[in-house]
Write a structure and sequence with these properties.
Radius of gyration: 16 Å
Number of helices: 3
Structural class: mainly alpha
Strand content: under 5%
Largest sheet: none
Number of strands: 0
Shape: elongated
Order of helices and strands: HHH
Number of domains: 1
Helix content: 40-55%
Length: about 60
């Protein structure tokens, strides 16, 4: 079994996410509104099956 350096692994994940979510100058590529769609506490009490579908599609394309 290959041993994985935990710190190197986490740093790699962090760098990968930064490159996908941030421009070189640090400006957010993804609007906070789109990310909040994943936070259940921001949902209506009884969300429709297609609630914020466009925002979710946008996030999927950006990731």
């Amino acid at each position: 079994m290959i041993s994985i350096n935990k710190n190197q692994f986490l740093t790699s994940i962090e760098n990968n996410l930064k490159s996908r979510l941030l421009d070189n100058d640090g400006e957010n590529k993804i609007n906070l509104k789109n990310i909040l769609v994943l936070e259940k506490s921001t949902w209506p009490e009884d969300p429709d099956i297609i609630y914020r579908e466009d925002d979710i599609k946008y996030l999927c394309k950006r990731m």
